[in-house]
């Protein structure tokens, strides 16, 4: 059977597989917050032609059902079908994903050390060919030459020794020996091979980013980004942990992400004419669950009290064992994690922000699904994760989407007429609303009196933009030809919960160390979201602390930036270890103060308006 996509490809569909599975198998990804369980209602497609069977219509409106809109995950073709995928069902990687500015980091590394120190080095060996008189074995011959360079402690693995005899003879006994910083031999390579390469990898819950780096001079040669295919098992880490443990799919999840990395890698090697043997190191960064899944470790204890990961400081791994399709012997370095919900991505983030080096007290926030927060300076660091949820990334919001083309990213509302002015990424017809748009909308709703402090719509406003639908009241941000874009009261509840979790997490951390906000000199905002955040509006809704705008710095995807630094510098790898060791991890879910802080932060902007003087001032002025 076949599925033909309107204005797109025609794909093979195996009998018994849902439309969603068939699309996914062919690399066409739909938004699937519930992982294809028929619950979230996000994977809508329209059937244009052909017979099909559908098992559920959760969240579909009567009109949609009449128009043959179905949930792809619960719909099965019974013959060739022709479908249309609406824009907001397509999972699109943001073209704005923050690919950090490698040049700035390279300059920084150069200012620190005269030479780059990737995990793999090389040394030229000129060996005397063996003879009847000089009959040392190949390994002993290499050792003899190394001792002439004062290297005595080299170790030789079985894999290395297996390829040694052929390689030495092929290169006429003059060749480079590549070896790890811990003196483990990797390979014998041609004396002509001047360059060698490495990978920096960020395994995010949603996306996987790979940098291909020339380790001889630090140049970032190529970047690959794809969705983490584990997404098919759910948007968040908890769903994946459940799937890995209760669903027995640990290996499947591991393979999914390894395939993602290898897939990106293959394309990059082809584009840059690089052979896999010449890529001889890799650095992996990710949150604790993503890293455990990459390592094939059962993640169940991450989810159960007392929330303990299997390992924080990972040993070096070999690419062959990790199944990365680069040089078999290449060391794979994993950036150390801190606790169950503060992973190596945060260690990498701190490394890139350099806040661990400065005496000024700073706050680091990675506003993604987990909302990790770190407070500290060069002497101490304390951290927690807030489980803010993925709504700022679009999940759990009726028309929520990531910050890609078609997303409403800014909202202005006239408080008298309620006319709406929208900023849309790509200046196209709006398809949904992304995190920064949601924050704007919330702030504008509040100051225009459309919602109250609890996020409830005012019932006595006279505007056709506010209407009551099946799921309750909603505000129409955009009247579209095919569909309206709205924010519902349920959406607003979700947003208030997320912003409250972030603010409460920060307050609890500061209280833990007996500090108040005035002492914080700088706030670093990391994560893809951090690039588009409107600070003033985020303060207005009580998500970020009321501090001067100049104190905020947006530092993008620091997880990949930290991995890049670790790939090129031994000093950075040591600093990453120190950062992870130095961070004190607080488990907020068992913290007594957290619930109180959270409840107080559920209001707009906060129960205690004195914490937000600039908001109070504006509010008083407008009243
Ligand atoms: S309803 Fe199909 S993925 Fe959630």
Question: What does this 3D model show about the protein?
Answer:
- This protein has 623 residues and is of the alpha/beta class.
- The protein folds into five domains: 2-89, Roll (Ubiquitin-like (UB roll)), CATH 3.10.20; 119-189, Ubiquitin-like (UB roll), CATH 3.10.20.880; 197-344, Nucleotidyltransferase, domain 5, CATH 3.30.420.480; 353-389 and 503-622, ATPase, nucleotide binding domain (Nucleotidyltransferase, domain 5, 2-Layer Sandwich), CATH 3.30.420.40; 391-494, no CATH class.
- It contains 18 helices and 28 strands.
- A six-stranded mixed β-sheet has the order 13-12-11-14-16-15, with helices on both faces.
- Strand 11 and strand 12 (207-214) form a beta hairpin.
- Helix 3 (102-112) runs parallel beside helix 15, helix 6 (237-245) packs across helix 7 (250-272) and helix 11 packs across helix 15.
- The protein is globular.
- It binds FE2/S2 (inorganic) cluster.
- FE2/S2 (inorganic) cluster binds at residues 32-34, 36-43, 71, 73.
How many domains? The number is: 5
Mean pLDDT: 90
What count of helical segments does DSSP give? 18
Helix- and strand-based class? Answer: alpha/beta
What's the end-to-end separation, in Å? 63 Å
Q: Considering the protein shown, what is the CATH homologous superfamily of the largest domain?
A: ATPase, nucleotide binding domain
- Binned, the helix content reads 25-40%
The third-level CATH topology of the largest domain is Nucleotidyltransferase, domain 5
The strand order across the widest sheet is 13-12-11-14-16-15
Strand content: 15-25%
Which word captures the global form? globular
Radius of gyration: 27 Å
Q: Spans with pLDDT under 50 lasting ≥5 residues? A: 94-100
User: What is the count of β-strands?
Assistant: 28
